[in-house]
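Entry type: protein chain
Record version: 2
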Amino acid sequence: MASDSKHRPVYVISVAAELVDMHPQTLRLYERKGLIRPGRSTGKTRLYSERDIEHLREIRRLTQELGVNLAGVEEVMRLQHELDDLQGEFEAEIARIEDELREQGQARELPAPGAPSDPKDRPVYVISIAAELVDMHPQTLRLYERKQLIRPGRSSGKTRLYSERDIEHLREIRRLTQELGVNLAGVEEIMRLRHELDGAKSHLESNVRRIQQDITERMTKWRTLPAPHDEEDEHEDQ
């Protein structure tokens, strides 16, 4: 989890409930469902952070303004927690690299900065094949694209091309709507977060590679610098 002040547990349950205009029992229910993850004091008292408050307000927006059912809210908050954890992983990875450099004075072998992207993102399926793979009508896929639930690529001739990740997203949309009964507003929120999560993971990996590559280049330059001459040795040589 990220170490900034937003994640510091400070509010007891009564204060947190007042801040989000909910009953404390509602907060306990949401915790049991895994929608929020308050911290604990040494005496096991629940303590909520600013980030928890933001999550609770988001839950209220989803349920009261968008009419998303609890199954849909669970999906949204699970993805939101993944994004929070990903940010924490990024910060931890940067700290680990810095520690490794301090302790060892060298960097690991790294993949080239232009390493190929995930093959799952390569657009390969035309719409008729994609629709068959997910058991949907092509018109449904067009609707989902207009709603920005999926984002297929385009060929040079502007033909829609779907990737393996698009197929995964379409199957997830079907699961949300058919199995969990999530309404379209809820699906839009969930898929927006899925796209954000995919982008954040890619950004994290790219940033870590870039930082490590920069460190590698600097370490290579340092190793090739000429060693400094000892002044006393120079005088003795004379």
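Comment: Residues 21 and 77 are 19 Å apart (CA to CA).
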